[in-house]
Amino acid sequence: MSCELSTPTRRLRRKTWLGFHVVEAPAGAFSQHDVTGLLAEELETEVDSAQKSVYLVTLPALKPGAAARGYVSPAAWSHAEVLRVFLSVFQQRQPEAEKGVELECVTVFRERHAAGQYHWHVALKASRSFRWHGYKRALHVEHGLATHWSSSHTGYWSAVRYGVMPSPQKPLEDLDVSPQSWAKAGPHPDLFEVAQEPVTAAALSRRREKKVKDAAATGKPEPRPTEMDLYAVIVKNGFKNTPDDANAAARLIAYLKVHGTPALVSFAFKNRAKLPALIDDVWSWEKVEDYLETHAKCRLDQLYAAASAACQCHGRWMPRALLSLSCNGVPAEAFCKDVFTLLRDGRRADVPVMVLMGRFGGEGKSFLLAPLRPMYGQAHIQATPQRGSFPLLGLESKKVALLDDWCFDESVIPLPTQLLWYEGKPFPLPRPQNSNQYSGHLLYEGSAPIFVTVKEKDLGPLQAQAQVAFTQGIPSEHTMLLRRLRIYRFTRPLPQADGHILDCPVCFAQMILRFAL
């Protein structure tokens, strides 16, 4: 049998139509390699039902005789010509059923066949899953190209890896030294980086299983596990610590006793003291994209994002917040503009610290500022410093400082340090030196804005001392302190609420933007 290009009339069982049919060869017909680069490549069978967003498309090189049958050989084409053809087909010749499909990334690789001619591989990723039949037809009708569509690749990384990474069957010297890439969003990422399989629990588990089976097949001992092998087990089974349940390590151990390989159980036992921290680290890696989506934005972007989200308190937070302000004679516009300015500009010399001072308690001071915690995340809020050697440890990673019931206490933070902090100037941040976690002390230069609630009985004496010093014309640190504060006085308690009201970041953000802009 030999290969002869013809009009497609039927699909032969266990054969893939690559722009030609396998037909009975007459006497003296072409050899089995008449279509260079097709049969010798052992291309996988095209899956008719495939509907994917990533494909690896092969453009075989044809011998000159194929031109008479309506096909052209792309062997002499350039990378740019192949790329242009694919972009034009997807942009201008879309099948009706695939309207709306857009190419996001394309990489074109040229490969030399054993017979000496070139053929092409095109790795492509689309905006959504689609069927390949209409595009195969368009490439044939519009450009005379025979194409093969491989749908076995698990992601764009896999299709690109086929052309980037050498293998025992494809030496490094046979790889395309100058592939051409295109990306809709801008410059295409580095191909070597794109060709790496993303870290997922499924991928890690699959690699470990293959290593163990390969070792067993050759009579070798089980490969030594690593923490990444536990990563796969932890994520696949959802072993996770929560504020109310810190038993994830025990669940992991119970699972390994039943399902773990001997080497993996031994590894976990040797590292048993580290398992709780390892589990927390694993989930910080597994959920890093969600973390960045929420926390990598600037403060103001997070404020706007919160304002456009769905309310969490059924609309109860804002009316009560406005009631607190109006009962105490605090203009909503002034309050919201100050909050907005602090979140926008952060800690600096011309932005005073916001202080909500209450006479009796229960006026709603903490209620007004509490939504800052869920908006920016508790881990990004500097809480009220406590007495100790390192009261501001970790301040460098915070987006907002929210000091509830702060006393401006010199026994916690020396007043000169407080003055530097409130004025927006750099100041030294002591850190413990008896562990590997820190190296030296830190000069803090962050811009986290500072919000304070305080009782009048705690701030009042400082105000009195500052007033005495001001009257007598005596330099005073207390006078300097008060110049750095913008104080809102709250004197009337709020009426008791009907049930608990959530600290709603959505209502908070909407209130700030409504009255500040």
Structure description:
This protein has about 525 residues and is of the alpha/beta class. β4 and β5 form a beta hairpin. The N terminus is likely disordered. Helices cover about 40% and strands about 15% of the residues. A five-stranded antiparallel β-sheet has the order 6-3-5-4-7, with helices on both faces. It has a five-stranded parallel β-sheet with strand order 9-10-13-8-14. The chain is elongated and about 105 Å long. α1 packs across α2, α13 packs across α19 and α17 packs across α18. This is SAM domain-containing protein. It comes from Durusdinium trenchii. InterPro entries: P-loop_NTPase.
Q: Supply Rg.
A: 34 Å
Any idea of the CATH class of the largest domain? Alpha Beta
User: What fold name stands as the CATH topology of the largest domain?
Assistant: Rossmann fold
Computed structural class: alpha/beta
Helix content: 25-40%
Number of strands: 14
| Strand portion | 5-15%
Strand order across the largest sheet: 6-3-5-4-7
Q: Describe the biggest sheet?
A: 5 strands, antiparallel
How many helices in DSSP terms? 19
CATH architecture of the largest domain: 3-Layer(aba) Sandwich
The first-to-last residue Cα distance is 78 Å
In CATH, the homologous superfamily of the largest domain goes by the name P-loop containing nucleotide triphosphate hydrolases
Arithmetic mean of pLDDT = 87
